[in-house]
C-alpha cells in the first residue's frame, strides 16, 4: 500500500482553491481599478484643459468686441480731442486685455490645432493694432478729419478683427461642447466600472457560497465516518470498516484504518489474548490520536480568519484537546476572526454547551472575534432549556451564513483602508 496520495492532497486543495480565488479577484480588481483611474485621469485632464481654453476664448471674443466698440467711439468723436483721447485710452486697455487673453490661450494650448489658432489670432491682433495706431496718427496729423474717412482707412482690417471675434466665439463653443461630451463619456466609464466591480463581488460571493456548501460534504462526513468506525472498533466490533471512496489523505487514512482493523482481528485469533489486547490498545490509541487531530481541524479561510468545524460527541478529554489546539493555532497565526461550526456535533447537553462556551470565551480573550454557526432551531431550544448563554458571541444558523458575514466584514475593512 502506497503512503503517498496519487492525487492532490487536501492541504494543497485548500491552499490552491483559496489562493486562486484570491489572486483572481485581486487581479481583476487591480486591472479594472488601474484602467479606470488611468482613463479618468486622462479624461479629467482633457476636460480641464478644454474648459480653460473655452473660458480664455470667450475672453478673447469679449475683449475683441470691446476694442471694436472703443474704435468706433474714437472715430465718432474726432472733433473733440479730449473725448477722442479718452476712448483711445479705453481702446488701449481693451487691447491689452485682448493681448493677454491671446497669450494665455497660446500658453495653455496642448494640440497643434489650438497652437495654430493661437498664432493666427496673434498675427491678426498685431495687424489690427498697427492699423489702428496708423489711423490714430493720421487723425492727430490732421490727415483724417471725419469718421467715414477713418472707417475707410480701417476697412482693410475689418475682416481681420471680425474673423478674430467669430473665431474666438467658435472656439469657445467648440471647447464647451468637447467638455460636455468628455464629461458624459467619463460618466459612462464610471458606471461601467461600477458594474464590473459589482459583478466581481457577485462572482466572489457565489464562489464563497459554493465552497461553504461543499466543505461539510468534502471534509466533515469522512471524519464522522472514521469516528464512528473507530468507536465501533473500540467497543469490540472487530468487523468495523470504513468504505474507501477517495484517494487523498482521508482515503489513505481509511485504508490504514481498515488495514489496522484486519490486523487486530487476525492477531486476536492468533496471539495470546492478553498480549493481543495490549497491542490492540496501542494501535488503537495511535489511530485515535490521529483521528483526534483530524477531529479538531483549524482551517484557514482567509488571512486572519480560522474555521473550526466541531463534529461528533464532546467529552472532557476531547474538549480539552480541541481547546488547546485551537487556542494555540489562533495565537500563532494572530487570528482575528474564528468561525466555530457545531453542525456536526452529535448532540448537546449542559457539559457540551459549557465546553463550547469556554472555547469561545478563551478565543475572545486572545482578541479574536467569534462566530458560532450551525445553530438549528432544536439546538437553540435545547440551549435555552439548559440556560446556556452565549452573550457577546455572534450566532448563525448555518456555516454558509457565517462565511458570508466574514467575507462582508473583510471587504468592508479593505474598502475602509
Name of the CATH class of the largest domain: Mainly Alpha
Largest beta sheet, briefly?
5 strands, mixed
Mean pLDDT: 78
Domains, number: 2
SSE order:
HHHHHHHEEHEHEHEH
CATH domain topology of the largest domain: Four Helix Bundle (Hemerythrin (Met), subunit A)
Q: Tell me what the CATH architecture of the largest domain is.
A: Up-down Bundle
Structural class: alpha/beta
The parts where pLDDT drops under 50 for at least 5 residues are 1-8
Give the N-to-C terminal Cα separation: 52 Å
Number of strands: 5
Shape: rod-shaped
Instruction: Determine the strand fraction and express it as a percent band.
Output: 5-15%
In helices, the fraction of residues equals over 70%
Query: What is the spatial order of strands in the main beta sheet?
Result: 1-2-3-4-5
Number of helices: 11
Radius of gyration: 43 Å
Amino acid at each position: 500500500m502506497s503512503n503517498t496520495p496519487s492525487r492532490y492532497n487536501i492541504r494543497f486543495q485548500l491552499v490552491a482553491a483559496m489562493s486562486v480565488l484570491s489572486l483572481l479577484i485581486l487581479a481583476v480588481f487591480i486591472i479594472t481599478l488601474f484602467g479606470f483611474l488611468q482613463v479618468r485621469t486622462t479624461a479629467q485632464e482633457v476636460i480641464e484643459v478644454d474648459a480653460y481654453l473655452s473660458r480664455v476664448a470667450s475672453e478673447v471674443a469679449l475683449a475683441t468686441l470691446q476694442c471694436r466698440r472703443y474704435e468706433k467711439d474714437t472715430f465718432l468723436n474726432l472733433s473733440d480731442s479730449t473725448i477722442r483721447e479718452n476712448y483711445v485710452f479705453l481702446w488701449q486697455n481693451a487691447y491689452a486685455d485682448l493681448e493677454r487673453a491671446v497669450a494665455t490661450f497660446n500658453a495653455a494650448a496642448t494640440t497643434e490645432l489650438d497652437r495654430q489658432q493661437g498664432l493666427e489670432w496673434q498675427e491678426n491682433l498685431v495687424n489690427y493694432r498697427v492699423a489702428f495706431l496708423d489711423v490714430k496718427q493720421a487723425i492727430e496729423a490732421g490727415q483724417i478729419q471725419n469718421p467715414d474717412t477713418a472707417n475707410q482707412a480701417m476697412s482693410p482690417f475689418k475682416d481681420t478683427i471680425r474673423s478674430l471675434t467669430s473665431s474666438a466665439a467658435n472656439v469657445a463653443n467648440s471647447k464647451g461642447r468637447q467638455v460636455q461630451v468628455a464629461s458624459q463619456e467619463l460618466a459612462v466609464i464610471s458606471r461601467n466600472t461600477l458594474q464590473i466591480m459589482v459583478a466581481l463581488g457577485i462572482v466572489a460571493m457565489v464562489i464563497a457560497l459554493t465552497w461553504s456548501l461543499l466543505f461539510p460534504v468534502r471534509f466533515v462526513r469522512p471524519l464522522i465516518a472514521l469516528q464512528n468506525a473507530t468507536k465501533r472498533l473500540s467497543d469490540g466490533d472487530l468487523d468495523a470498516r470504513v468504505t474507501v471512496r477517495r484517494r487523498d489523505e482521508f482515503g489513505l487514512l481509511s485504508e490504514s484504518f481498515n488495514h489496522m482493523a484486519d490486523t487486530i482481528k487476525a492477531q486476536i485469533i492468533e496471539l495470546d489474548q492478553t498480549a493481543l489486547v495490549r497491542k490492540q490498545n496501542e494501535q488503537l490509541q495511535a489511530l485515535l490520536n490521529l483521528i483526534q487531530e483530524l477531529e479538531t481541524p483549524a482551517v484557514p479561510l482567509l488571512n486572519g480568519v480560522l474555521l473550526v468545524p466541531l463534529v461528533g460527541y464532546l467529552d472532557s478529554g476531547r474538549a480539552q484537546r480541541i481547546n488547546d489546539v485551537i487556542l494555540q493555532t489562533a495565537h500563532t497565526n494572530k487570528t482575528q476572526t474564528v468561525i466555530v461550526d457545531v453542525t456536526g456535533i452529535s448532540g448537546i447537553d449542559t457539559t457540551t454547551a459549557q465546553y463550547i462556551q469556554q472555547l469561545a470565551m478563551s478565543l475572545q480573550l486572545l482578541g479574536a472575534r467569534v462566530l458560532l454557526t450551525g445553530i438549528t432551531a432544536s439546538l437553540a431550544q435545547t440551549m435555552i432549556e439548559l440556560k446556556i448563554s452565549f452573550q457577546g458571541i455572534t450566532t448563525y444558523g448555518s456555516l454558509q451564513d457565517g462565511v458570508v458575514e466574514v467575507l462582508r466584514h473583510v471587504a468592508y475593512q479593505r474598502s475602509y483602508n
